[in-house]
Amino acid sequence: MMDKTTQVIDVLSMGYGTVPRSVMSDRKLTVEAKAIYAYFAACIGAGDTSFPTVGEISKDLNMGKDRFQKHKKKLIEKGYLTIRKDTAANGRYSTDVYVIQERVANG
Question: What InterPro entries is this protein classified in (predicted)?
């Protein structure tokens, strides 16, 4: 039984994503890289087209920006993640769009 101070939240209300087992079982990926992948999958699953900043993602995952960049780089090197740079109307760089790849090279 819940006491009067307990709040119930809908953990799916902010969106959720699907994480392929092949990503989770890739022993060449660190636990940090897998967490980053799952984070992006949750954002994409929520229908987000814009992502939080690196600072916000780092805070959410409780890791420093350098650590985040290091493990994100591994996802890119393995082909699980690509980054598309969007431009604003004035033609200047605007935001990074993270794209989870459905197919990656084996090896």
Answer: WH-like_DNA-bd_sf (IPR036388)
Rounded Cα gap, residues 29 and 31, in angstroms: 7
According to DSSP, the residues that pair with 96 across neighbouring strands are: 85
Averaged over 22-47, what is the pLDDT? 91
pTM here is 0.80
Q: Is residue 105 part of a domain?
A: no
Domain membership flag for residue 3 = no
Can you tell me the distance from the alpha carbon of 90 to that of 28, in angstroms, rounded to the nearest whole number? 41
Question: Domain of 38: which CATH number?
Answer: 1.10.10.10
pLDDT surpasses 70 at 11: yes
Domain with 96 in it: 21-100
Q: Which two structure tokens, joined as six digits, stand for 30?
A: 């660190």
Residue 87 above 90 pLDDT?
Answer: no
